Amino acid sequence: MNTQPARPEQHLVKEGASGRRGKAASKWGLPVLFLFNDVVFSLGDPERAALSAGSPMSEAQLRALTLGKAVKLVREAVFDEPLLARHAPDKARFLAALIGWKSDEANALLAIRPNAARGPEDVQVRVASVGLMVLTQLKGLQEVDLLTARTANDAVWLHAPQRLRA
Question: Is 150 helix (H, G, I), strand (E, B) or coil?
Fold first, then answer.
């Protein structure tokens, strides 16, 4: 397992025909991977994934959403269901896509509800931009049921600077 620190991967950002920056795929045509706690999701284009997720919010509301509001939605969801990525993967995938879209850089999210949490504001959230190789390795472990929270933590969050907290 690669134990190198997580680093931003600028090649994951490509410019579309409209000149707008988006993360439809890596320069090799691979789908965008996103780590939500200890689950890796294959998103494709995060904007498209968020818009097509069947959210109760309208497309206009989703487009107007800020990164701060997206993080607030993550906090609320994780406060209600601490194991969201495992117990409600569709909702977690939507939130991962939303964070990936609104941040235009993040591809990893750690959201933890402390035992003493009294409200969503107590949920701890960190975001990072992780190397494609690390996420690919984690996805491979997940596919053979070997991805654990400890493995994801050691590969990503152990090395991420504290300033990445949301």
Answer: helix
pLDDT tens digits, 38-52: 999 999 899 999 999
- pLDDT at position 23: 43
Report strand pairing: 32-36 vs 108-112: parallel
Q: How far apart are CA 37 and CA 56, in angstroms?
A: 24
Q: How is residue 124 annotated by DSSP? A: E
CA 56 from centre of chain: 20
Query: What pTM did the predictor assign?
Result: 0.79
- Give pLDDT, residue 31: 72
Contact 35, 156 (CB under 8 A): yes
- Give, in order, the Cα–Cα distances in Å from 66 to each of 53, 59, 99, 104: 18, 13, 9, 12
Per-residue buried b or exposed e for 131-155, using 16+ beta carbons within 10 Å of the residue's own CB: bbebbebbbebbeeeebebebbeeb
Exposed, middle or buried, 10 (CB in 10 Å: 0-12/13-18/19+)? Answer: exposed
Walk across the sheet containing 39-44 and list its strands.
Answer: 39-44, 32-36, 108-112, 124-128
Amino acid letter for position 106:
A
Q: Hey, what are 43's tokens?
A: 């998103």
Paired sense of beta strands 39-44 and 108-112, if any: unpaired
